Amino acid sequence: EKFALLFRGGRAAESPGELQRHTQKWFDWVTQLQKEGKYVGGERLHKGGKHRAGANKAVTDGPFTEAKDIIGGFFIVNAANYEEAVKIAGDCPDFPYGGTVEIRQVMKM
Q1: Does the CA dihedral 92-37-42-44 come out positive or negative?
Q2: Residue 56, phi then psi, degrees to nearest 5
Q3: pTM
Q4: Cβ of 101: how many Cβ atoms within 10 Å?
Q5: 3-state DSSP call for residue 102?
Q6: What SS3 class is residue 76?
């Protein structure tokens, strides 16, 4: 099964050295998931964006959410079930920075 891991919130690193160490933790995590055949893909997302809604399909700048709710990026991973996907998400390097991970099963089309 495929699962989406949506990375939300978290504070920024406070120094270049801290940023470098944090980035290395992400790189190491992705490398390990690749070795295990779990990593399908993923990307970081820009903070800004556009929002389209309503009968008139109005376009506004966004997202209009608190920083803790902004999705900063995502992974798609292979996992046997939710339990395994939750275990994979448990290694996210953003937890010490106040980040969260939403785990969603990808629907087969």
Answers
A1: positive
A2: -90, 0
A3: 0.84
A4: 20
A5: strand
A6: strand
- Find, among 74, 72, 61, 64, the residue nearest to 97 by Cα: 72
Distance of CA 89 to the CA centre of its chain: 9
- All residues at 6 or more sequence positions from 97 whose CB lies less than 8 Å from its CB, including other chains: 10, 11, 12, 13, 22
What DSSP element (H or E) covers 83? helix 82-89
At which residue do the structure tokens 């900063």 appear?
72
What is the helix, strand, coil percentage profile of the chain, to 5? Answer: 30, 35, 35
Which tokens in the block code for residue 51?
Answer: 């929002």
Cα separation, 95 vs 88, whole angstroms: 13
Candidates 71, 65, 75; CA nearest to 100 is 71
- What's the pLDDT tens digit per position in 6-58? 999 887 888 899 999 999 999 999 999 999 999 999 998 887 787 788 888 88
